[in-house]
User: Fold this.
Amino acid sequence: MIRKLLGKVREVARNRRGERSAADKPDSGSSTSSTDPIELPGCQVTFTDYDRTVAIHRGKTLLHAVIGAGVPLPHECGGLASCGECRVAKVEGEVSERREIETNILKILGKPLDGRLACQTLVFGEVSVTVADAE
Assistant:
């Protein structure tokens, strides 16, 4: 059953790629092709305790920024909010509100609730992140 479902997903993906490539081809009478403008990253995330800054697309998670900046932060579950390892101490700026799953994971693991899980925090603008807790 799973193979059948995966086959359908692949078929839909192939069809969508085919539609996009056909739409990107120029008309026979046209000398220039019309292409969509490339969307540039519109958000900037600064990791204060690592002195690193990375640009990411709006709506991506802090975990994307962590990986892009090469900040050493464990994320064992791959961004599924089940391990709590990607907790950062402090986040300031334009980010999503904390969701219930994030609060529950932090409580279960006994971690301070003032931090955020990088895999659950969406970035919407300029953000400053402190990874490590102050000792």
